[in-house]
Amino acid sequence: MIEARGLTKKYGQKTAVAGIDFTVQPGKVTGFLGPNGAGKSTTMRMIMGLDRPTSGTVTVNGRPYAQLKSPLTEVGALLDAKAVHSGRSATNHLRAVAATHGIGRKRVDEVIEMTGLQAVAGKRVGGFSLGMGQRLGIAAALLGDPRTLILDEPVNGLDPEGVLWVRNLVKHLASEGRTIFLSSHLMSEMALTADHILVIGRGRIIADAPVADIVAGASGTRVRVRSPQAARLAELLQGPDTTVTSVEAGLIEVTGATAEAVGELAARDGVVLHELTPVAASLEAAYMSLTADDVEYHSAPTGAGTTVQPGQAPAIPQEARR
Amino acid sequence: MSATATVPATRAAARPSGAARVTFGRLLRSEWIKLWSLRSTWWVLPITVVAQAGIAWLIAYFGTQEFGEGGIDYTITAADIVGGLQFAQLAICVLAVLAITGEYSTGMIRSTLSTSPTRTPALLAKGLVVVAVAFATGVVATLVSWAVTYPVLGEAHRVDLGLEMNQRILLGAPLYLAAIALLAYAIGALLRHSAGALATVLGLLLVVESVFALIPWTFFEKISPYLPMSAGSQLVFTDNPDAVLGPWEGYGVLVAWGVVLLAAAAVLLRRRDA
């Protein structure tokens, strides 16, 4: 269980985290989403006692991190893949970390095996790929078999097999009643992995709800209608609560009316339908609409009708767009 | 990464027992593993020993030849045996500085502080390991220096171990290395950047102290004997009635420099974000 109360971090004039409150519950996977620079990593570093909050508190299993007598068995963390001396082998890194808690060589070998690092365990970390570095970071986080696991972008750089492994691992650990808190840029990955989502934007929590609620709360469900008489149907559908957008010739999208309502209306007026599909809002769409006003670095649209995804198009500062 | 580990293999049953908590002894063990698992350690320490003993041999070899020819009246002392300290201390300083700044430059410090969240014990554990290794290296280097100069000096120039001064110098050499390692480690912990800390330590020992000693202004002349190397090296110098500080007083001043700077580093470590 992780609890933040009024957690604030300022760097000089700039507020990175602005008095946030949240609780990460045990027994489920909580996703931590936010655009670049929203305060995710700062928050995670404050949980781990690495950065000192300007004000407010954050506790893990009821205590500030610095008061934990056995931090490795309480919290395992992958903060970034570079928290390792590049001149040391993976095994020696894990041995050194384990030694602080009197954890033996047997457990070190276990986590090496769990993370699939056997082949490179004796090699110096400096030569590791991003994915291997992530696996080593996860191995270190698991050393103490912790009750709480904090993973910052764990699937970054992992191959598809590694992504699947992380997904299964965190779900399994959550099912054992542990607290899992992970951040990711990949909304699709979060939709598959997380049970609960915290969305942070500009240092503030802008959503804190189960995944299903966040998806449902996103700007309504849409209905996609394909019809040779699309223009006529669009006219019929026009109303105060309904918006109709024309996607292409013969294809419209309706917001504010159910598929049933559209179908019945079409039947009444004898409009031929070729397709009538309710389209559930994706977590990604929900996330985009939630953070639309909170993105620190906006991307320039790459073309009409193209969805702009944070972090995928080259980031252009807001000023540059004007 | 073809090795598959799709089955999450944590086993609640295999959870390390409740005894898995952080103790100072365990931190020492961890720092010990960290030190010896870096290649630089395996380079620097032999270099320290070889350099100190090599310089001792050169002093003894060429010294005895000079005596033979010119008939100069000179008694070889233990200070000549440990003459290589001048070089050995530089190697030890590099090791001590990098032991801590290497953690900052690689990000390892975040792992270290996560496992030891009260921070000060981790700083002290690493410092203790560095100082102990510097002392042990000094012991080995001094013994090797003694051994390689023994046949060269022969009966004629044998160092008199019965003299209290010679005993003090031979014991003092490892102690000096340990104290200079403490100073370098503390400066590394304060500055956190390898290049900056190395430049500061080496600049202090090699440049600042000699410049201070050279400038004939009363202020510098008063300060100069209290600078770390000038003070501490009294312990490995022959008896000098004119020295401002005695051997052990001077050594005390050097240790005080290290302790004060390490205390400052500890205060900052607790305050600063990692």
Q: Could you state the CATH homologous superfamily of the largest domain in chain A?
A: P-loop containing nucleotide triphosphate hydrolases
Shape of chain B: globular
Number of strands of chain A: 13
Main sheet strand line-up of chain A? 5-6-7-3-8-9
H/E element order of chain B: HHHHHHHHHHH
Helical fraction of chain B equals: over 70%
Report the sheet with the most strands of chain A, covering strand number, pairing sense and barrel closure.
6 strands, mixed
Q: Kindly state the mean pLDDT of chain A as a whole number?
A: 85
Please report the two chains with the greatest interface, counting residues with C-beta closer than 8 angstroms to the partner's C-beta: A-B, 62 and 48 residues
Q: Kindly state the mean pLDDT of chain B as a whole number? A: 88
Instruction: Give the oligomer, counting copies of the same chain as homo and different chains as hetero.
Output: heterodimer
Total beta-strand segments of chain B: 0
User: How many helices of chain B in DSSP terms?
Assistant: 11
CATH architecture title of the largest domain in chain A: 3-Layer(aba) Sandwich
Strand content of chain B: under 5%
Query: What is the CATH class of the largest domain in chain A?
Result: Alpha Beta
Keywords (chain B): Membrane, Transmembrane, Transmembrane helix
GO molecular function, one term (chain B): ABC-type transporter activity
Protein name (chain B): ABC transporter permease
Transmembrane segments (chain B): 42-63, 83-102, 123-149, 169-191, 198-220, 250-269
